Amino acid sequence: MRHIRLFAAALAAATFATPGIADDSGHNGPLNVRADSHAPIGVMADHMHKRGEWMFSYRFMTMNMQGNLKGSSSISPDTIVTTEPNRFFGMPGMPPTLRIVPLEMTMDMHMLGMMYAPSDSLTLMVMANYLDNSMQHVTYAGGMGTDELGNFKTGTSGWGDSSVSGLVRLFDSGPTKLHAIIGVSLPTGSTEERARILAPTGMTPVVRVPYPMQLSSGTYDPILGLSYSGNSESLGWGAQWRGTFRTTKNDDDYQLGDQHRVNAWLSYLFRPELSASARLEYFRRDNISGLDPMIMGPVQTADPDRQAVRRLDAAIGLNYAASGTLYGWRIGIEYVLAVDQELDGPQLETDDQLIIGLQKSF
Ligand SMILES: [Cu+2]
């Protein structure tokens, strides 16, 4: 919940900072700026550009996960290590139940984006991510019982998957717009990250880390979507679906589950430069098929069938689009709270996310 304070500070800063430029229509005129012409900052590929226009963007996202859920009920580490079966049981040294439990995870993502419109009906978009993951665990001693052996933390960081997409105009009446998203996700990150762990035997080997800590899918995956937006004088709205489809196994013999995001948002324009938004996102990710033979252990994250997520998030945010001499610059912030989730578990529960983004078009 540390994100709430940051968000409140940004809200206060925006509220106090904007009156000074309220009447600054600049050289471009006040009608050229409309903060809500972009979706809330957590939505990607939401807008198109005019022919010849470029945009560069940077987003920072941080996600907090804490505690475990099975389905939508919380499950304690003691219960996990005494009742949850270990799929690797029967292999040398493998206990019948899970013995290592993730307690919390932080995922930080730096996203770089570039957009360019060769025509009014096509905008090209390239995105790259740099990831920084850390996960805290508890290890239980031996093959049974509830004696804790100790804690350990693993961390991975590096470039994740990139994407190249085309946004294709399907409809534009001025106030309402619709476009298709057609792209491909590129395996520009590593699927073979390693870290030191604490095993139930007390040994501390360096092993290939489980799936949630890897940086990439390892596959070329089609991305498809539809994005709609509209506005009236002071209200804006929109909806988007975006899916990533995994079609082949990677070099490590597995494929991540398909992923879908469905978004709906409403915004209110206080003045041309400033809008506030409320957004709902439904996120769905399927289980992994196949299995990396190098990822094995009495821990839920190593199990391909304990990866699926169905989650509803609610977000509030602000968009600010500069006018006058800073015309072309935008800043957006969003605080995202997970309100409901169902996990093929045990699996770490998502708490909240904070997203801050800076955009410059010219
Ligand atoms: Cu753009």
Q: Can you give a write-up of this model?
A:
By secondary structure, the protein is mainly beta. It has one domain (2-361): Lipocalin (Beta Barrel). 6% of the residues lie in helices and 54% in strands. It has helices at 2-17, 77-83, and strands at residues 54-71, 73-74, 100-119, 122-140, 148-159, 162-172, 176-186, 194-196, 206-208, 221-231, 235-244, 254-255, 259-271, 274-285, 289-290, 309-321, 329-361. Strands 1-3-4-6-7-10-11-13-14-16-17 form an eleven-stranded antiparallel beta barrel. A two-stranded antiparallel ribbon has the order 8-9. The chain has a two-stranded antiparallel sheet with strand order 12-15. Strand 3 and strand 4 (122-140) form a beta hairpin. The longest helix has 16 residues, at 2-17. The protein is elongated. Mean pLDDT is 93; it is low at 15-31. The protein binds copper (II) ion. Copper (II) ion binds at residues 47, 49, 55, 115, 361. Residues 47, 49, 55, 115, 361 line the site of copper (II) ion.
* Name of the CATH homologous superfamily: Autotransporter beta-domain
Bound molecules: copper (II) ion
What is the N-to-C succession of helices and strands? Answer: HEEHEEEEEEEEEEEEEEE
Would you tell me the structural class of the helices and strands? Answer: mainly beta
> Helical residue percent?
under 10%
Q: Give the overall shape, derived from the CA principal axes.
A: elongated
Unreliable stretches, pLDDT < 50, 5 or more residues?
Answer: 15-31
Q: Tell how many strands the DSSP assignment holds.
A: 17
As laid out across the biggest beta sheet, the strand order is 1-3-4-6-7-10-11-13-14-16-17
CATH class: Mainly Beta
Total of helices: 2
Radius of gyration: 22 Å
